[in-house]
Specification:
- This protein has 153 residues and is mainly α.
- It is 54% helix and 12% strand.
- A 3-stranded mixed beta sheet has the order 1-2-3, with helices on one face.
Amino acid sequence: MSQTLEAPRNHVDESVCKFFGFLESEVKLGQQMLDQGVYTTLAQYIKTSLQSPLSLSIEMLKRSNEQLMHFMQAVVRDFLKSTTLVQAAFIGDTQKGLMYYVVLKDDTTEHREKFFDFLDEYEYLGIDSLLPIHFQFLPEQANDHFKEEQKIV
């Protein structure tokens, strides 16, 4: 059952109408190009979806995971830079999640607790099984064992 859109009442409605207008023009162009045997990006996407829905779903999942990783790297980087407790921080291997090596200015249980609180909040989001985040606390001497491109703080 389709619904008729009324005239836009707010910014979101205006955006939806603009998007529909864009889709309408893309569909018309796609139909014209397909008549000539040429696939537009949208037509190719539809074709791939119909021919191999599983591979398309897997590709979308990969992209989503990559975006989640980039987003969480930015969040953790901001957290590490914003705290006054960190002397140095480095990112490690990202094959099995996000691994951060942290050298605290004053390595105490109380200071480490700030990081565990961060991880508790992250776990509460329910995405920690998709992208685990780990902090490993190191002594100051460990700074020399990391490459400059790994350094965050």
